[in-house]
Amino acid sequence: MGPALSVPARRAFQAVITATAVLAALALFVSACATGGTGARDEGPAGADAVAGKLNPTPMASAYATPDDVDAVRLVEDDPGVATSVKRALKPCVGDEYPVDVSYGDVTDGVADDVVVNVMTCSDAVGVGSYVYRDAGDGYRNVFRAEESPVYAEIDRGDLVVTKQVYKKDDPVTSPSGENVITYRWTAGRFALEYRTHNEYSGAVDGDTPTTAPD
């Protein structure tokens, strides 16, 4: 597999997650697909559908020397906990380019960097599944998944931050009404919900600043 999304492309995808402009979504249609194995390294900066903790008791076999060598596409494909619908979406968009965004960083206090994988659609770069894999020594274990689309996960200062779009009736995919931002922290061998915030995009498409209210 080739490299996954570049840092600029990954930041561009996050612009779709905030969904404040149609042009951003159109640009992402070109850059959202990636070729599996490696991605950006993030050193610093939910609900019932999100499952946190020791999900997969059997580690997925791995011969990777470092997280940078991880084949993220294969991790998801070999993970029995991943929904069939997500695996169906995990197909090359063009050539060998897969719609995945991969980042690495310490989010579980492990001996090696964790792997955060976001699976997206080829057509509009919408996140359909977010996963965290932890190095178990002899392979990688899935310790988190969120599969209620659209969803996006990232590492922020050692915490796992999951963003979920909120749509009202007739909202276009590029213009959600708001978002839920959920922060998890690794505690006692699993992810525990730390706090959540709901942001309303009141007039955000027209350039107004979104309002923020605690959930």
Q: Main beta sheet: strand number and arrangement?
A: 7 strands, mixed
Count of DSSP strands: 12
Q: Segments where pLDDT lies below 50 for 5+ residues? A: 5-49, 61-66, 204-215
The radius of gyration computed from the alpha-carbon positions, rounded to a whole number of angstroms, is: 16 Å
SS-derived structural category: alpha+beta
Portion of residues in helices? 10-25%
Report strand %. 35-45%
Number of helices: 4
* Arithmetic mean of pLDDT: 74
Overall form: globular
One letter per element, helices H and strands E, the order comes to HHEEEHHEEEEEEEEE
User: What is the distance, rounded to the nearest whole angstrom, between the alpha carbons of the first and last residues?
Assistant: 41 Å
Structure report:
The protein is of the alpha+beta class and 215 residues long. It has a domain at 7-152. The chain contains 4 helices and 12 strands. Strands 1, 2, 3, 4, 5, 6 and 7 form a 7-stranded mixed β-sheet that branches. The chain has a 5-stranded antiparallel β-sheet with strand order 8-9-10-11-12, covered by helices on one side. It is globular.
Give descriptors for this structure:
35% strand, alpha+beta, globular, signal, five-stranded antiparallel β-sheet
In short:
With 215 residues, this protein is of the alpha+beta class. It has helices at residues 7-18, 22-31, 72-78, 84-89, and strands spanning 40-41, 50-52, 60-61, 100-105, 114-120, 127-135, 139-146, 151-156, 159-166, 178-187, 190-200, 211-214. A hairpin with an 8-residue loop joins strand 4 (100-105) and strand 5 (114-120).
Ordered list of secondary-structure elements with their pairings:
Blueprint: H1 7-18, H2 22-31, E1 40-41, E2 50-52, E3 60-61, H3 72-78, H4 84-89, E4 100-105, E5 114-120, E6 127-135, E7 139-146, E8 151-156, E9 159-166, E10 178-187, E11 190-200, E12 211-214
Parallel strand pairs: 1-4
Antiparallel strand pairs: 2-7, 3-7, 4-5, 5-6, 6-7, 8-9, 9-10, 10-11, 11-12
